[in-house]
Predict the 3D structure of the following.
Amino acid sequence: MSDKILMKGNEAIAEAAIRAGCTHFFGYPITPQNELPAYMAEKLPEQGGVFLQAESEVAAINMVYGASAAGARVMTSSSSPGISLKAEGISYIAGAELPCVIVNMVRAGPGLGGIGPSQSDYFQATKGMAHGDFRLAVLAPDSVQEAVDLTRQAFDIADKYRNPVMILGDGVIGQMMEPVEFKEIDSPELPEKDWIVDGAEGRERNIIHSLRLKTEDLTEHNWKLARKYEQMQEDEVRYEEKLMDDAEVAIVAYGTTARVVKTAIKEARAEGIKVGLIRPISLFPFPKKVIKKAAQQVDCFLTVEMSTGQMVEDVRLAVNGERSVAFYGSPGGAVPSPAEILVKLKEVME
């Protein structure tokens, strides 16, 4: 008898977060992620946790700051323009070295755009989230099951590095229903939260802040953060390779797009085209060493995204001019079809 449960992506992430020990959720509604806070509103209080719908995204992210500073495992979720509103607070959280998990179910932009699935927030998530020298760890699932698994890992990574972690999905991941299994996973040994603000009996008080007015203090702090991000790049890279052993062309894609690419690759292989897939699961840290190694084997790369081209820049940086990197994009809420990708693949090979 299977232990799997049929669940919508947004709800499965919420359930995974609760099982990972999330005790506080603060958010504000926006399509296409509303099922996640709705699930939290119903289920989290039953577990003794706190759900609060804030008056705005700005208020929500600052509540996340406070709960994390007190030692709670805390989550928020939103979609594209809502994440933009949270961006200043996310910078403060990173500057104060506080762990939290942020879910972005990306909708098409810019501006209000539309509610169709998109990958146009890649730059925002991995490079330009907000002001200052900071990075998020960014995890991009391609299935509801992987979204569940990565949610658990996200909380552990956040606690390990005292840093925000983003789960980057889209309307397809959030809305589709798939069977999922909530596996019992042992968390790695994590550092003690001896920095939290929970009273100061028997010890000196802790002060959590991101303001450092002395240039030398801020310089030292920024280099400390940089070393942390370098450590992430050594220890937290996640990726999937498919049919790369004999591949002459490598397609690079993530999330929902990678699922479509897998179908296109199957069809291409049936026609005798030797093509494989490299799927970044961690967008930061990016699997640049894997792509660099593939450049010694394949004749060329094709990057496929639901955008006008964002991750392709990181692919080109990793390839470093050793092979050509073509791009196929499907922006504005449209999911590319396997047939479209196959046509572009043949064009690239010619």
